[in-house]
Write a structure and sequence with these properties.
The chain is 78% helix and 0% strand. The chain has 131 residues and is an all-alpha fold. The N and C termini lie far apart (39 Å).
């Protein structure tokens, strides 16, 4: 019960942070906001942001498996990383954009998530971003 409550709180915090920052990163091409999303993803998977975002896709998956929360947060992390890829493309950094999409794919595949499935709490944001 405590673990479940903790995860719900972590996910709620993640959604709050990512909703604002991802919109700025995608719509305003704001690099600082993209870095906020990266920090939120790293926090979600219980890693240091610099370390998490520098990991090869398979290594990120390994670290998520070791954290023990990967199953519960994979869909959220995959969604944010995938959309970050779009943001970096728009900012003129397609190499980093591809790295984020590769991380998203690896996370989704490892934990049985679908990178194209939008977590319920992020559907309103995704609809705004897709306009």
């Amino acid at each position: 019960m405590l673990h479940r409550d903790y995860l719900l709180e972590v996910i709620e915090q993640f959604v709050s942070t990512v909703s604002h920052a991802l919109a700025k990163a995608l719509l305003q091409r704001d690099l600082k906001a993209a870095e906020e999303v990266e920090a939120a993803v790293a926090d979600l998977v219980q890693l240091d942001p610099e370390t998490a975002m520098s990991l090869a896709p398979e290594s990120l998956v390994t670290m998520m498996m070791l954290s023990g929360t990967g199953d519960a947060v994979a869909g959220y992390a995959a969604y944010a990383l995938h959309r970050l890829g779009d943001a970096y493309d728009a900012m003129g950094d397609p190499e980093l954009g591809q790295m984020r999409r590769d991380q998203a794919e690896a996370v989704a595949q490892a934990f049985g998530a679908d990178v194209d499935e939008i977590p319920e709490e992020l559907r309103e944001l995704d609809a705004r971003l897709s306009q």
